[in-house]
Amino acid sequence: MSPTRLTELARGGGCAAKMKQQDLVEVLAQVPPCTTLPDVIVDRDHGDDAAVVRGTGERALVLTTDVIAPLVDDPEAFGAIAATNAMSDVWAMGGQPRFALALAFYPADTEPLDQLAAILRGANTACDRAGVAVVGGHSVKDPECKFGLAVTGEVLPHEVLSNRTAQAGQAVILTKALGTGVLSQAIKKQLASSDEIAAAIASMTTLNREALAVGRAHGITACTDVTGFGLLGHLRNILRGSELSADVALAELPLLPGALAHAAAGLIPGGSRANREFVAPHLRHEPLSADRDLLLTLATDAQTSGGLLLCIPAANADRCVADLRALGLPAARVATLSDRDPGTIRL
Question: Annotated catalytic, 15?
Fold first, then answer.
């Protein structure tokens, strides 16, 4: 049997299906917090990327899990993207991933198992590059293909980065280009060029390890990664956690090849549309031109394995961007933080 295109096995257009941010907020509001436990350093209360708990000895443990549906049809590339995406949460907290468990959901009754094996190989390759050992996992027979990892990392408690530790006056640096949600739609509809697909895969399989190291060298105090809630959704989590506002420079956003054209053609995932609706009450701006409105669409595009948002002293921003670009990352200063009118995003 020839394998079905992977993106056809993903319900909802082939992009990572993630609960709407507003729905998630409403659900978690009904669940008691666990911050009263003495070993919990960071939990879910401020939308951080991972939990941090006290381990043994000097180091704390960083705990996270992430599962996505296929964005591309190459199974090894999909496995590598899913693994990179899951490990990114540990780097976003300032830690280093160490061990992982694979989580596979696969229509084994209808699709060849060698395709699943290729997904696992791709994940192992990405984990090998990161120095992460895949030590086990769990599989589920499911009509929709999904894959991800549960990752455990380590961090020194005083080096934890979270949404609560940004400071007024800091610059916000984005380390990767935007547009994976829009491009996933173009791939699903077979409208993306081979060059556009290659650029998206290269971005989504780039580890955020080196970007974190550069941020450390330039005085980073807070961090998040840009994934399903889009750039502005994840920036809002920082603003909420740190009681700040931001001035965002839409014109400075780095974009993947083809992202602007496909967004203009209306290839916008449902999750991206929901992201824009969610952040709309927090935005302040003059009437937008068509070009700026399109950039706003990409600023709320649901990302997979996106870059880091590094909050660093403004005086270090230019050097930080230069060092990131020297690594081949399309980094840019995209926002400045302020204590004026907390929670507001000014465009």
Answer: yes
